[in-house]
Amino acid sequence: MANARTRYDTIAEFMTREHDAVASSLYGKPSVQVNGTAFLFYMLPGMAFRLQGRAREQALTLPGATTWAPLGQGGERGPWVLVPVAQFLRWDRLAIDALRYAQEGQVATPKAVPLQGPPEAPPAAQRWRDNVKALLEKAANLRLLR
Fold first, then answer.
1. Where are the domains of the chain?
2. What is the C-alpha separation between 23 and 34, in angstroms, rounded?
3. Torsion angle defined by CA atoms of residues 15, 17, 21 and 24, in that order, rounded to the nearest 10 degrees
């Protein structure tokens, strides 16, 4: 257990030093936050990571890993994965993935803007148009000989 806590402290210190994260206590558990969004929790059974997509699915395949919720409810479909102490050597990579997810959540998502007028023709259509135009010019210059 001491090695796992040391590993968490090292990860938390790295996140605060290199990525402007903040180590704090949230819900009575040590946590790390970036821009007000918690992405790591440490507790006795292991460390919880806020993940999405492939990183979440891969974390759930680790032996002993389960879904988790900070308040103890609705963790089945949520982004949190509790990885046990037995897997503490994999925590570094999971922490980086969780940091990325937390930072992406702070970025404004692009909004769709309606087009003004017809869209531009794709490059292949422009080449096709130019080729047809060149063929028509060649055909216009053809003369029949007698």
1. 2-104
2. 9
3. 90
CATH number of 2-104: 3.90.1150.30
Buried b or exposed e, range 27-61, using 16+ CB within 10 angstroms: eeebbbbbeeebbbbbbeebbbbbbeeebbebbee
pLDDT in tens, 20-36: 899 988 888 899 999 88
Residue among 95, 72, 74, 96 nearest 83 (CA): 95
Are residues 58 and 24 in contact, defined by beta-carbon separation less than 8 angstroms?
no
Give pTM, 2 decimals.
0.68
Which phi-psi region, left, alpha or beta, contains residue 64 (left: φ > 0; alpha: ψ -120 to 50)?
left
